[in-house]
Amino acid sequence: MMQAKNHGHPADERDGFRFRGGHSAIDLPATLQARLKPAPRELLKAPGDLARWLVAAGLTPTVPETTEADLALAHALREAIYALANARLSEGTDPSAAREIVNAIAANPPAIPHLSPEGTIGMIGPASALLATLAREAIYLFGSEMAGSIRQCQSPTCTLFFVDTSRSGDRRWCSMSGCGNKAKVAEFRSRKRKARTDA
């Protein structure tokens, strides 16, 4: 996939979206932030938001034509991918409905791969075709050995999933600079308080 340009922002944040999953299919669920809170924050509110995400995710070099129907399709794909990832980590969860949604979206005509003069790969097509391609990538992820490397961030306030590609296979955080750093600071403060009370 084509890599999006980093315009002075952390590598895992582009155009207001978080890309901490290590795989474009796993990054799509991050477009619903604070999903377990009473008022989650929807980042894909309008077709233009979806178009921006597709470019920021590196799926296409140009802003694609995007409709309300594409936005609804993206929401369905996002929630299906989230359910499949969650089912991998939660016993007793039936992912069959989510699997059917991903398979149905993947059956749509995909985007066309395009080799740029710079030698990078981009996908060309409307948002519906890019979403079909993304659904196919999700199928290859969940149907491969890489599915065993899907993890959920261990921060109690984070719901992001990621593909653990670390050598040791024991990555705990979606981002060391985000959730990992917050956890280390909290742990340090806790030890400091405990040391004061023990003294």
Descriptive overview:
The chain is of the alpha+beta class and 199 residues long. Helix content is 43%, strand content 11%. The protein has a two-stranded antiparallel sheet. Strands 3-4 form a two-stranded antiparallel sheet. The protein starts with 12 loop residues before the first strand and ends with a helix.
Task: Note the topology.
Elements: E1 13-14, E2 17-18, H1 24-27, E3 32-33, E4 41-42, H2 47-56, H3 68-89, H4 96-106, E5 112-115, E6 121-124, H5 127-142, E7 150-152, E8 161-163, H6 176-198
Antiparallel strand pairs: 1-2, 3-4, 5-6, 7-8
Helix pairs in contact: 3-4, 3-5, 4-5
Number of strands: 8
**What is the distance, rounded to the nearest whole angstrom, between the alpha carbons of the first and last residues?**
56 Å
**Which percent band covers the strand fraction?**
5-15%
Please give the largest β-sheet: 2 strands, antiparallel
Q: C-alpha Rg, in Å? A: 18 Å
| Tally of helical runs | 6
**Given the C-alpha coordinates, what overall shape results?**
globular
Low-confidence stretches: 1-9
What would a concise description of this structure say?
This protein has 199 residues and is an alpha+beta fold. Helix content is 43%, strand content 11%.
Give structural attributes.
single chain, 199 residues, alpha+beta, two-stranded antiparallel ribbon, two-stranded antiparallel sheet, 6 helices, disordered N terminus
